[in-house]
What we know:
By secondary structure, the protein is α/β, with parallel strands linked by helices. It is 44% helix and 13% strand.
Amino acid sequence: MSTILFTPMHERGHINPSLKLARALQARGHRIVYCGLPDTEELIRGEGFEFESLFAELFPKGFQAEVMARLGGLSGLERMAYVRELVRKQTRMLESLLDGEFDRIIARTRPDLGITDVLFPERSLILHGHRVPTLLLNTSIPLRWEPGTPPPTSGVIPDGLLSSTLRGALDWGRILLDSKLAFARHQVGLDPNVLKYRHALARKHGYPLSGLDFAGRPTGEHEPMIILCPREFVEFRGAGLSIDYLYMGPAIDLQRQEPPFPWEQLDGERPLVVCSLGTMAIHPDRAERFHHSVIDAARRRPQWQFVVATNQWKGSAATNGDPPSNLLCVQHVPQLQMLRRASAMVTHGGFNSVKECIYFGVPMVVLPVQFDQPGVAARVAHHGLGVRSSIDTLSPDTLTGLLDEVVEKPSYRRNLERMQAIFQAAEQEQLMADTLEKHLRTRGSAS
């Protein structure tokens, strides 16, 4: 039996897809250990895996909920002051890594393989120093456009006002920016000292600086990168691979724990529309615009059933006033169970939500908000799996028209059936485990 150490980012969107990999390896008899912030311990242990707490003093239990609440409610100078406070905590976290906090976890658990989130590169640098083979887990779409090749020229942006060439060029640029830069802004842009600490960790643990990108993250030249999605969805014409990608199935963990739901309140005879903007913090004005549009769309389409997840926006318009009888508001939806019966989903374009819609054959209205979501939305539109629009200009008229489009036009279902078959064929636990086991070391080979 080997020990495999998972260190995903502490968001559900990064933890959930790792669970499928962990279960596949656990079924082979391997010991699975997760390492993360205290806020993730209950989730991980509830899924049946060991857990090691990291940065418990800096980020005690309840920290994530506090950040979500404050970032969702603050603006102006107050928001800037709070962000500076978070930056100081990030600096202290990096200092703790240099002082050996993660090294001590490695010494206790003695892993034979590390699977680390590409957005937390410090841990892969440290694992390198302990001679633990490491795979980078990328839960997004890390492609680059190869210079000298033409960008995609049609079918990407569903906007009749632009020429097909301009649509393709603009959208490919958006894909590049989101896959290469947006996450770097999220992780690095707040604190210019982050690069300094990452370089210090690389030097301490013997990692070649030439193997780091502009943000101080491993480029994948020394550690293969896992992409949890079939190649057919991710790649466009004009895309070139720059590193060693391990394309796998979408890694949708059908066994994961989901919140309770009042199923008796659903009308099984009406088409079901699931609406959610995910669990990450966004500006309250966007959340309000989204929920107002959903409420009005439900009033205009009484023959449909709407379920909306309010997530962190407990004071949203969706939970106030007198919603229509065909609209059901809950804080969190059991998304996997819901998509089994859904006719459409209105989503922020989170990669996991999009993959789950494809897996269950559900057409999408995608309203990208941040990070990789515009790039994911571009692929949904390109493959004809749904439509996309801007959340900043969303209105009841817009949303109702987009829902009519994806629910009533059979072409979206046909395109989904083709991509669904690819997804389901790729989702083989045996193949995942075989691929990952190739990178295991033997205990005796480590010095």
